[in-house]
Design goal:
Helix content is 44%, strand content 15%. It is an alpha/beta fold and 388 residues long. Bound molecules: pyridoxal-5'-phosphate.
């Protein structure tokens, strides 16, 4: 059967082959240490599961409004106030089937065919493909390790001058895959460039509470101007261990949210009703859970960095948030795909090759893994390193 031109432009996920292999080996009972996971290893908290079960028992299993329950939107607004210092009305909130779905709908809503969309590199795997599906053109802007993997305002401005078609900037911090976070000063500098060139901004802050030092600063909260030009993306997947429940949200300009809601109403309709009730519980009662989770991952990040410190060739960037460490592997003389394949074949340790994020000298090591797995995985890696 013939494929549409639209889908032909989309690349298959480069991480798929390696993650499928990790799962296959695990299923066969091989002693695989999986540092590939893009989700918390902690289970969904009990109080959240209970709210989901109660929704079923109370017969709350039918359609809701396509863009989400008003009670959930209220809980989303309260969380935006509490965590991000942002005030939104219910009409500025879209609840979707995961943050990925919110992002997809927003990109479809604000990107026209031919529009350039600025993307700091390394980037999360799905952004380029979502941009291409909307007919847009990803415009890559390199960030530097020395600069904490943060977008430099002069590079941003140069990319805009070189690509007059750009209309949108996508920011993501704490960043998947680097664990980078931004200082307020740097965000203000970026905001000035966005204002000068009248860019819309999509700020994906799904790891906001997993910031290790200081408080997360939302781009939209910087000024009246950034509030108006930013659509903020968030969700319950990472902060409340709810990846499988599929609830994410977007907040911002009322017209954009309304239009994105129209797209959603003709595709998925409402996100799963039961999950929406569980998400209300997570957002309303998850404050202690957020800090518990942050403490767990800070400890694991420290353990990982201690162990990497004893290695010769692996050179990690110290994560400032998320549950990922980005590790430079140029000392091994392999590209990231060969590195990840060999490591999985030879010592059964699974990592994600950086080529998937536009950074072929790096691999992403997820520490959403138990302490024992971190110790064992890094021990194997250290011994393996001796052969290089
Ligand atoms: C930066 C970033 N944005 C969005 C998502 C998607 O989250 P969700 O599971 O809510 O669709 C992920 C998940 O890996 C992510 O890392």
């Amino acid at each position: 059967m013939r494929l549409s031109n639209r889908v032909k432009a989309v690349s298959p996920s480069m991480t798929l082959a390696i993650t499928a292999k990790i799962k296959e080996l695990k299923a066969k009972g091989e002693p695989v240490i999986n540092f590939g996971a893009g989700e918390p290893d902690l289970p969904t908290p009990d109080f959240v599961c209970k709210a989901g079960k109660e929704a079923i028992d109370r017969g709350l299993t039918r359609y809701t409004p396509a863009t989400g329950l008003p009670q959930l939107k209220e809980a989303v607004c309260r969380r935006f106030e509490r965590v991000n210092g942002l005030s939104y009305r219910l009409s500025q909130i879209l609840v979707s089937c995961g943050a990925k779905h919110s992002l997809y709908n927003i990109i479809q809503t604000i990107v026209n065919p031919g529009d350039g969309v600025l993307l700091p590199v390394p980037y999360w795997v799905s952004y380029p493909e979502m941009i291409k599906l909307a007919g847009g053109k990803p415009v890559y802007v390199e960030t530097r390790e020395e600069d904490g993997f943060c977008l430099a305002p002069d590079r941003l401005e140069q990319a805009i001058k070189d690509n007059p078609s750009v209309r949108v900037l996508i920011l993501n911090y704490p960043s998947n895959p680097t664990g980078a976070v931004y200082s307020k000063d740097r965000l203000i500098e970026i905001a000035d460039v966005c204002k000068k060139y009248d860019l819309a901004v999509i700020s994906d802050e799904i790891y906001d509470v997993l910031t290790y030092q200081g408080k997360h600063i939302s781009f939209a909260s910087l000024s009246e101007d950034t509030y108006k030009r930013t659509i903020t993306i968030n969700g319950v997947s990472k902060a409340y261990s709810m990846t499988g429940w599929r609830i994410g949200f977007a907040a911002g300009d009322e017209d954009v949210i309304k239009a994105a809601g129209s797209i959603q109403s003709h595709s998925t309709s409402n996100p799963t009703t039961i999950s929406q009730y569980a998400a209300i519980a997570a957002l309303n009662d998850g404050v202690d859970w957020e800090s518990y989770m942050r403490d767990v991952y800070v400890k694991r990040a420290n353990l990982l960095m201690d162990m990497f410190g004893r290695m010769r060739l692996a050179r990690p960037f110290r994560p400032r948030g998320t549950f990922y460490a980005f590790v430079n592997i140029s000392g091994y003389g392999l590209d990231s795909m060969s590195f990840a394949s060999r490591m999985l074949d030879e010592i059964k340790v699974g990592v994600i090759p950086g080529v998937a994020f536009g950074a072929d000298e790096w691999v992403r090591v997820s520490f959403a893994a138990s302490k024992d797995d971190i110790v064992e995985g890094l021990k194997r890696w250290q011994e393996w390193e001796a052969g290089f």
